[in-house]
Description:
single chain; 96% helix; rod-shaped; DNA repair protein XRCC4
Amino acid sequence: MEANIRLSEEVVNKTRSFEKMKSEAERCLAQGEKLCDEKTEFENATYAKFLSVLNAKKAKLRAVRDKEDSVRAVEEEESTYKAESFESGRSDDEQSGEEASEKATSSKARGGKRAARS
Length: 118
C-alpha cells in the first residue's frame, strides 16, 4: 500500500513538474515570437533610414557630377572659342606662310636626296 501512495505522490509531482514545464515552454514561445516581431520591425526601420541616407547620398553625388560636367562643358566651350578666335585673328598671309613651311619641311623629310641635289 505504501508503494501505491508513494507512486501516486510521484505521479502528482511529475504532473505538476510537467505542467510547470509546459507553461514555461509556452511563455518562451510567446517571448520568442515577440522578439522576432520586434527584430523585424527594427530591421524595417533601419533599412528605411539606410535607404533615405543612401538616396540622399546618391542625389548629392549626381549633383556634384552634373556640376563637374557643366564646368567641363563651359571650359571646353571657352577653349574652343579661344582657339577659334586665335585662328581667326591671323591674316591669310600668315596662314599660307605656315602652310608653305609645313610643306617644305615635309618634302625635306621624304626626299632628302632631291633637295640636296637642287
